[in-house]
């Protein structure tokens, strides 16, 4: 029996935060040594931080990364550590893993497959390393191997399948298995999306089984650079079984997961596979030997498998968004959050996320630990989490003559139920002052019959200066409350309800948001329980309350039913279907809707989508929580100026008028 203690650490790193990143790496190594770990895998590009973007090209970033690598070296006495670092080689930059052993650098493994879709732009900064090739790179007066390299340490082979290399059809791991690798390390920066962890779990398990190895997966944790949230979730598998699995969505900066594995058992499983053939042509140049090192003896047997319960969609959204919001607040050094609470679903959801963020962090870290992480604020007098929420969350209801007592009381109930500070501002006089000045300049009155949109927008915009004042006075983060459904059709007032430095719910559609609020009202996170006060909002039909009361304004009357809107968005934008194909898809899903009405809604969506790209370009940053995001800076690009689908919509109208739609 050949036992080896392996570990994976998830780290909450920040781009270009050299001291903070190094401190997390040092802590991970110290904890690993304390547990008796012999092989430690750290996340991809963990030294500079994964989200450096175009600053990866800065010579100073590359130089500082290697300077800190030298500081990490002496920390690795007695164990092997994989550290993510960019390396310049022959005027090309490579995404590499530095392999450190017992205070020495053994070499660099360069990433072969670079993701260039969705949120990822790695080919913009790095070059892909070709399979089977090695080179030599100079560092501190010595030459080290770089490229497609495996490591032989005391009779155990280590290889690397770096993040994207596990997601492609021809996995790097299959080649490494043929080269006799025993332990496969996967240092990743794999962002959160709904149910994505299940996919990662499958490739870790299948990799361990098919390649006959111990598979060690590490990941980034938290909100590193603004939009992407990383859920951590380290995993160690052997022989197709999950041996150890770390927690996800932790508020701690370092979380270590380790396990004792039996190398001989994995080798025997490979020996028994009749189709397995070793690579007889593999070059010895691609194998680095460390002849003088011996693994420490492991006392005890192998680790028993673990299997945590999978999370549902509502719980994943809650944990991911609150963690992303927490890191955004502390890394931007904001002193709490301010929300313009209208009594509607969006602002209630945004406020609830702030309260849940603070309560979840306090539950995991303890109140003192949480106050320590927010050490840039004066929180010495705070004695419990209720006082902390009241200090760091301000909700402001801003009324006009078109606001109702119903939404005021709903807003008050939500703020009190969350434990937030609550204030009421009447901005009607400000609205009327703007209206009177413009009427004087025009020489005519403004009326709802002729100036509907203008009169709606000035109310939303008149709320912006006051809420910004509160944010400035407190040094707090102003949160915008727009959701993805509104972003798709531009159903938001620029410089009004879109005001803010961060829009935490802009990545989620309205239909899901309303379901989530109902879940939060009656169930909520197991450790925190429900928030019954949200019932005051959940009972109301969504409305902007910008027209006079007698109009009976609702969002869905202005637009269309949200479940229809969200499905049109998925078909038209997510799947890039033309209007006729969107109609065909929706016709069978909404058989009771009149075909001409369905056509009107589809045409309205496409026209509003094309007309409002400029708004999406100006929205505050939002979190990526699923792979149907509309953020033009990271996911869904569309021209600001376009033909507006005119020809396609004419074809749709002819199609419907001709009576071609089949009966559902």
Please tell me about this protein's structure.
The chain is of the alpha/beta class and 664 residues long. It contains 22 helices and 21 strands. Strands 6-7-5-4-3-2-1-16 form an eight-stranded mixed β-sheet. Strand 4 and strand 5 (104-110) form a beta hairpin. It is globular. The protein starts with a strand and ends in a 7-residue tail after the last helix. The mean pLDDT is 93.
DSSP helix fraction: 25-40%
> Separation of termini?
65 Å
Indicate the radius of gyration in whole angstroms: 28 Å
- Shape type: globular
**Whole-number mean pLDDT:** 93
Strands of the largest sheet, in order across it?
Answer: 6-7-5-4-3-2-1-16
Low confidence ranges:
none
Question: Main β-sheet, in a few words?
Answer: 8 strands, mixed
Please report the number of helical segments.
Answer: 22
The class by helix and strand makeup works out as alpha/beta
How many β-strands, per DSSP?
21
Percent of residues in β-strands: 15-25%
Keywords:
664 residues, alpha/beta, 8-stranded mixed sheet, 7-stranded mixed sheet, 21 strands, 39% helix, globular
């Amino acid at each position: 029996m050949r036992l080896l203690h392996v570990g994976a650490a998830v780290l909450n790193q920040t781009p270009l935060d050299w001291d903070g990143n190094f401190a997390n790496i040092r802590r991970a190594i110290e904890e690993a040594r304390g547990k008796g770990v012999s092989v430690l895998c750290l996340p991809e590009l963990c030294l500079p931080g994964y989200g450096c973007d175009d600053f990866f090209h800065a010579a100073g970033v590359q130089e500082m990364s290697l300077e800190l690598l030298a500081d990490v070296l002496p920390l690795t006495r007695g164990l092997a550590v994989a550290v993510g670092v960019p390396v310049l080689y022959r005027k090309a930059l490579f995404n590499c893993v530095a392999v450190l052993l017992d205070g020495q650098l053994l070499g660099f493994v360069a990433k072969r497959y670079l993701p260039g879709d969705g949120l990822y732009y790695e080919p913009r900064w790095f070059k892909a390393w070709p399979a089977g090739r090695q080179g030599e790179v100079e560092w501190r007066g010595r030459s080290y191997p770089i490229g497609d390299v495996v490591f032989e340490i005391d009779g155990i082979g280590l290889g690397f399948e770096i993040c994207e290399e596990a997601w492609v059809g021809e996995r790097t791991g299959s080649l490494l298995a043929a080269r006799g690798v025993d332990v496969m390390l996967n240092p990743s920066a794999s962002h959160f999306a709904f149910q994505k962890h299940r996919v990662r779990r499958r490739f870790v398990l299948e990799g361990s089984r098919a390649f006959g190895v111990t598979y060690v997966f590490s990941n980034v944790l938290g909100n590193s650079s603004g939009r992407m949230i990383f859920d951590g979730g380290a995993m160690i598998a052997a022989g197709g079984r999950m041996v150890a699995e770390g927690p996800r969505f932790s508020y701690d900066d370092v979380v270590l997961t380790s396990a004792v594995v039996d190398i001989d058992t994995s080798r025997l499983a490979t020996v028994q596979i009749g189709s397995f053939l070793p690579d007889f042509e593999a070059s010895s140049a691609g194998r680095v030997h460390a002849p003088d090192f011996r693994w420490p003896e492991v006392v005890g047997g192998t680790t028993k498998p673990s299997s945590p319960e999978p999370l549902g969609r509502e719980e994943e959204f809650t944990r991911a968004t609150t963690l992303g919001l927490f890191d955004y607040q502390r890394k931007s050094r904001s002193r709490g959050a301010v929300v313009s609470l209208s009594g509607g679903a969006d602002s209630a959801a945004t406020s609830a996320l702030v309260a849940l963020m603070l309560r979840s962090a306090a539950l995991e870290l303890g109140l003192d630990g949480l106050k320590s992480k927010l050490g840039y604020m004066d929180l010495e007098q705070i004695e419990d989490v209720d006082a902390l929420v009241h200090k760091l969350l301000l909700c402001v209801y801003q009324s006009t003559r078109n606001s109702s007592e119903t939404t005021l009381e709903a807003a008050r109930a939500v703020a009190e139920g969350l434990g937030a500070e609550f204030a009421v501002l009447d901005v009607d006089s400000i609205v009327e002052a703007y209206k009177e000045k413009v009427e004087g300049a025009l020489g005519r009155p403004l009326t709802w019959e002729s100036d509907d949109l203008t009169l709606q927008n000035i109310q939303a915009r008149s709320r912006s200066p006051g809420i910004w004042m509160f944010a400035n006075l407190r040094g707090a983060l102003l949160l915008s409350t727009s959701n993805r459904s509104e972003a798709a059709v531009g159903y938001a007032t620029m410089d009004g309800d879109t005001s803010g430095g961060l829009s935490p719910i802009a990545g989620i559609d309205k239909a899901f948001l309303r379901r989530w609020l109902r879940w939060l009202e009656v169930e909520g996170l197991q450790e925190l329980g429900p928030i019954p006060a949200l019932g005051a909002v959940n009972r109301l039909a969504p409305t902007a309350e910008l027209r006079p009361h007698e109009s009976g304004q609702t969002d869905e009357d202005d637009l269309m039913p949200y479940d229809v809107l969200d499905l049109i968005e998925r078909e038209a934008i997510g799947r890039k279907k033309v209007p006729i194909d969107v109609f065909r898809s929706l016709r069978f899903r909404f058989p009771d809707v009149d075909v001409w009405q369905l056509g009107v809604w589809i045409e309205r969506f496409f026209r509003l989508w094309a007309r409002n790209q400029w708004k999406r370009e100006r929205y505050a940053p939002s979190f990526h929580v699923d792979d149907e995001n509309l953020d033009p800076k990271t996911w869904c690009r569309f021209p600001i100026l376009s033909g507006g689908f005119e020809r396609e919509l004419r074809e749709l109208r002819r199609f419907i008028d001709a009576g071609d739609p089949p009966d559902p």
